[in-house]
Known about the structure:
The protein is an alpha+beta fold. The chain has six helices and nine strands; from the N terminus they run ααβαββββββαββαα. A five-stranded antiparallel beta sheet has the order 1-4-5-6-7.
Amino acid sequence: MPEIPKQPSVKRESVTRTLLVAFFVSLVCSSLVASAAVVLKPRQIANALLDVRKNILEVAGLLQPEGDVNELFAAVEPRVIDLETGAYLDDVDPEGFDPVQTRKDPKLSVVIPAELDIARIGRRSKRAVVYLVRDQGEITRIILPVSGYGLWSTLYGFLALEPDGNTVADIIFYSHGETAGIGDFLTKEPWRARWPGKRVYDDAGELRLEVSKGRVAADDPLAAYRVDGVSGATLTGNGVTNLIRYWLGDHGYGPFLKNIQGGGS
Length: 265
Ligand SMILES: Cc1cc2nc3c(=O)[nH]c(=O)nc-3n(C[C@H](O)[C@H](O)[C@H](O)COP(=O)(O)O)c2cc1C
């Protein structure tokens, strides 16, 4: 019987070698990516904090283009509050308070009842950090973190109120996933400029502040509480109204603002 010629071993070896090389290359690459993620994590956290502080300084009216954000932030007083009572929790360090983590903890957060969940948040932390600016001990601005669903995404921002707790000083949205060129009007300066001076509650204490559908008519009796909406992007505007109404309502910062309006400091 004729002998069957053996397969040259070089071929099998080269397949094994190729697989081994591919394995080691991917091992080295994944180790590099993992180490980079670990090494860069503290820097990412620091940058995120810096960004938050910059936005707070901006609505506080304290941001200076050449200034050091962390130094300027020393003029801002972060305070942790209990949202249900509106009272300050002086034993809780605002530096260590992480609203994102707290919101996930069932012991430290509450489910928002469906009928109140107009901002479609689902649940919220029992506590929040508010930011105060003072001049000679007197509050000059109150800055409140706000969030809620727009059309496609959760919008995150800061609403600044005058010391009466009833007049808008400024608003900024620093994160959203609305459509570029349609729903992103909320980050544009001309729209932001329409907020200062708007009133939150009417004389009967009713929460009235909202974004209109389209422009607010000059003779609108509720013009003091209404901000121009953007035609073609009403749904994102509705999301802003809903988050404002939730966070300034009784389940949000309402009790805290009542304390301020009642002379609390
Ligand atoms: C691709 C696409 C993306 C859209 N993105 C947004 C958006 O981010 N925000 C928004 O309010 N409307 C957006 N719209 C428009 C809404 O579907 C809706 O028509 C609009 O908000 C209604 O506003 P109006 O009543 O002023 O016309 C988008 C529409 C399309 C087709």
